[in-house]
Structure formats: C-alpha cells, structure tokens
C-alpha cells in the first residue's frame, strides 16, 4: 500500500512540474527537454502504478488459458 501512495504522490508532483513548465515550453530548448523528460517520467510512473494494481493470480491465469488470436480476415467473414 505504501508503494502505491508514493507512486501517486510522485505522479502528482510530476504533473505540477509539467504545468509549471508549460509556460516556458516554447521559449527555451532546455525547458523543452525537461518538459519531455517529465512527460516520459509521468508515463513510467503511471505504468508502474498500473502494474501494482494488477492481480498477479488473474494475470497468471490469463497466461495459462489459451486464446485464439483474431486475424484481420475474421472481421470480414
């Protein structure tokens, strides 16, 4: 639980930093690079949070149960 709280806090802090940099985004190359790195950091943190919220038992069952992949021709039959 503590790890989820920390990730949510980090995501929130990153969002605040992104909002602050949006003002200077087009004026400065350094700000643009920092803005892009913060966007990537936010995406990584969200993915980590999503992975923590997944149920490992259900994910294991999904891997074990075979599923038929749809082919593009299946949509036109």
Give a quick summary of the entry.
With 77 residues, the protein is mainly α. The chain contains three helices and no strands.
Descriptive notes:
It is built from three helices and no strands. The protein has about 80 residues and is an all-alpha fold. It is flat. The mean pLDDT is about 85. The protein is about 70% helix and about 0% strand. The chain has helices at about 1-20, 30-55, 55-65.
Highlighted features:
71% helix; mainly alpha; 77 residues; single chain; 3 helices
Lay out the secondary structure.
Blueprint: H1 2-22, H2 29-53, H3 56-64
Helix pairs in contact: 1-2
Helical percentage: over 70%
Q: What gross morphology would you assign?
A: flat
Fraction in beta strands: under 5%
- Major sheet summary line: none
Taking pLDDT < 50 over at least 5 consecutive residues as the criterion, the unreliable ranges are: none
Summed over residues and divided by their number, the pLDDT gives a mean of 85
Instruction: Please count the helical segments.
Output: 3
In whole angstroms, the N-to-C terminal distance is: 48 Å
* Rg estimate, integer Å: 19 Å
Q: Could you give the count of β-strands? A: 0
Q: Could you give the order of the helices and strands?
A: HHH
Structural class: mainly alpha
């Amino acid at each position: 639980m503590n790890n989820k709280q920390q990730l949510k806090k980090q995501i929130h802090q990153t969002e605040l930093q992104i909002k602050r940099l949006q003002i200077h985004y087009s004026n400065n190359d350094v700000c643009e690079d920092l803005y892009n790195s913060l966007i990537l950091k936010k995406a990584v943190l969200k993915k980590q949070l999503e992975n923590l919220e997944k149920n490992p038992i259900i994910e294991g069952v999904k891997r074990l149960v075979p599923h038929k992949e749809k082919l593009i021709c299946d949509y036109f039959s």
